[in-house]
Amino acid sequence: MRMALENIKVLDLTRVLAGPYATMVLADLGADIIKIEMPEIGDDSRQFGPHVEGESAYFMSLNRNKRSMTLNLKTAKGREILLQMIKEVDVVVENFRPGTMEKLGLGYEVLRDVNPKLVYAVASGFGHTGPYRKRAAYDAIVQAMGGLMSITGHPGREPTRVGTSIGDITAGLFTAIGILTALMNRNESGMGQKVDVAMLDCQVAILENAIARHVVTGEIPGLGGNRHPAIVPFETFQTSDGEIMIAAGNDILWAKLCIAMEQPRLIADERFKTNPLRNQYYEELKPVINGVIQLKTTKQWQEILDDAGVPNGPINRIDEVLADPQVQAREMIVEVAHPVAGKLKMPGIPIKLSDTAGQIRRPSPMLGQHTEEILKELLKYDEAQIEDLKEQSIF
Amino acid sequence: MRMALENIKVLDLTRVLAGPYATMVLADLGADIIKIEMPEIGDDSRQFGPHVEGESAYFMSLNRNKRSMTLNLKTAKGREILLQMIKEVDVVVENFRPGTMEKLGLGYEVLRDVNPKLVYAVASGFGHTGPYRKRAAYDAIVQAMGGLMSITGHPGREPTRVGTSIGDITAGLFTAIGILTALMNRNESGMGQKVDVAMLDCQVAILENAIARHVVTGEIPGLGGNRHPAIVPFETFQTSDGEIMIAAGNDILWAKLCIAMEQPRLIADERFKTNPLRNQYYEELKPVINGVIQLKTTKQWQEILDDAGVPNGPINRIDEVLADPQVQAREMIVEVAHPVAGKLKMPGIPIKLSDTAGQIRRPSPMLGQHTEEILKELLKYDEAQIEDLKEQSIF
């Protein structure tokens, strides 16, 4: 079956997370991703544990649907081959520290001269402009500097890092959007361009209403805990065996919750009639709800509230996420067979296209697995030429 | 100047966050977003505080670059007009509870028959398939059910909600990617399709290495606090006046950090020579670093570590993010003038395109501000026809 991006060729110089996440998203929807890796070393994340039969589970999760070619860009011949490949692809993506490509003689201007239709995308910590442009960053640094940590956590406690590398991942998503947008533009203009995405910028872009609240009220948003800043009840409650998230987003859902809790008198209670009132009398309302919710298990409340149409959910651990019937029905956990590591479960494809569905067509590549295949296919090299390169340790 | 998506017309039926975030990203890059709102009521988020001169700062932050048209889809004439508009646009996006469009007689099959080139995108809580497909969800529910809360927070404490609505926002980003991908495909096939994105699916997709770690080791990832799960030192440290995030991601950075701390003897210390050793002797290393870092202010350490090339950053509050020189240099805080509310600061555009840069061309619209303009432009209605619709309260 046709895939949406199957005619898009991407030269992928990225390592670790932000860049590889962007190219994984494109790969899942059909793009041909040629991952260029340093001979013998490869993507740093090949070293990240845990390993299965010597293969990094981290790397395998992020590099499915890609082919790997080794190429030593520190050699003149390696750079020459890269420039030849640039002519044959639609997109190049890198997430080096800014300046690295220029030092190699492979900066954007050079590549654009070789292929004016090229889309050149870069995901870096702070971007290619501005006073911090030469600095390296990691996810934790941009989570800290971008303000997200200052609003994540429980009141009176410390700022908290999000448990997944959301700084890298959002940069990967914005980079994928930038690449597709530049390709759309190229369909009309015939010209490529540079896409410059910074992890710090993306952190600012996802702050949602925190900036609006601050600039309008002058207050500095603090640690919000698990409670919604403006809606009551909309937070976690203790059950007899754990916790449950309950979100009664409006007065109708509040009434449904009261009935589900077998507390119909609360609907008529003047203190709790509207959301502004429930905010005002929060300190009186919270213990009333606590008192009821703590009497049953999380599972019992889930059934009661689902039947009543009140949005709710358990705080699932990772093993519970994998077992969730909806997650399974949506194929959001897939099992990919790797020739060395065997079968590995990983997240599925969250973009469900009705006519050109994404597919997981191949496991993550072994280092340099496709070098010869790509040299023949893309550059029409013959066996003798390949043998020659091999002897020179170019790949 | 040309913008990349300026020839793309989007009929935007979305409300609140996930959908409007997706269409804002497209709008910022040039797409013409026609926001359809219920007469007199409009997008629910117009009611979300804080307000400036009666205008919601939340709504204004998410709906710049869009036009607003009111249309009562509960009337036959309103639905007829929507179907006429469907013929003239490239994309329709909605984030209603699944089934709502079908009840209105505006389900995907109906719209596709009217315009086979249409890309129909939907962002919902649980998606349009699977056992939970009829349920409503809010951000907090999918953060809980998707596993992210179970790995966010400090060890021994409670699971923690991310302080921004990352469930909505990642769904918005994946929806934007899905729309652009379907448009890319349409350029070749001539046909539109349906894009079905679920907030819960997106939470699973961003779990990064948590799933790999679990399936390989059998351990259930828990609350990780602010410490990197595998790299030392890579966490927050107390300074004399606050905290600082320090990320010494490899042995070279570790050596640089030791010198910056004026503790060169640590480089030679056998216990701390490699990252695996620093993990093993973490409990001995942490107090040593603590003892040094607490002697100077955050700002002093920033300067010292920046000079030494050690990735670091302060844990900025929202007001500090707005004042950051890099954030300012990258135009990641922009000021948009609204005709009623005046100037409002909001996040800028994180996708920097070299040749077709995104622009903020207009503030968020007043409810129904562009109804007549759009009826004339898109459907060629004349004044008499518009007057007639107005009398029937269709808009």
TrEMBL record, chains A, B:
GO MF entry, a single one: formyl-CoA transferase activity
The entry's keywords: Transferase
Top EC group: transferase
Enzyme Commission code: 2.8.3.16
Keyword Transferase belongs to the record: yes
PANTHER family in UniProt: SUCCINATE--HYDROXYMETHYLGLUTARATE COA-TRANSFERASE
Protein name: Formyl-CoA transferase
Protein species of origin: Alkaliphilus metalliredigens (strain QYMF)
